């Protein structure tokens, strides 16, 4: 069934695909966001679920002029809330190389005398200092994993803010951060606190080792 690109179920599936893609291909130097849905089609697979076939345009969070086209398939499993949707994607063209920015950030954090701690990124006026931008992008990328694991056909998540982030000291090469983030669930308009533990290394990418939805009062 063809869906208009603006159809809510197409935009939800597209937002999920973009989150997943950002998690797979993002870094502290690159976050990907959904710019536009070009086309959408829904396929109902008996006894399995709904599969969306999508054509998307993604943009770089830091450089909105930098875009790539992408095709994606998102399969939502019927009735089972505990299975994350299946996402397959193909990117047309090349993503911007971020090795240099990633290595600069990695070396800067590695050379800190004490662990990084920060709150309210961006601040309540939407401002972010340049040195916190990679910390935000890392949260953006990692939150893509959280959204992928917790999405259904009736949700659409967006990262609203980092409430708190604390670096965790490690004896190996990885950087580790403990984040408390706020996710905006666009369908219910709920703001949900979420805890996630994130590992990152320039050669090995982003891993979310723990994530859990927090009660509202966790913010107080």
UniProtKB/TrEMBL annotation:
Keywords: Acetylation, Cytoplasm, Heparin-binding, Inflammatory response, Protease inhibitor, Repeat. This is Latexin. It holds the Pfam family LXN. PANTHER family: LATEXIN. The gene is LXN. Belongs to the protease inhibitor I47 (latexin) family. Hardly reversible, non-competitive, and potent inhibitor of CPA1, CPA2 and CPA4. May play a role in inflammation. Residues 1-97, 117-220 form the Cystatin LXN-type domain. One of its GO terms (cellular component) is extracellular space. It comes from the Eukaryota. It is found in: Cytoplasm. GO terms for biological process: detection of temperature stimulus involved in sensory perception of pain; inflammatory response. InterPro entries: CYSTATIN_LXN, Cystatin_sf, Latexin. GO terms for molecular function: heparin binding; metalloendopeptidase inhibitor activity. It comes from Strigops habroptila.
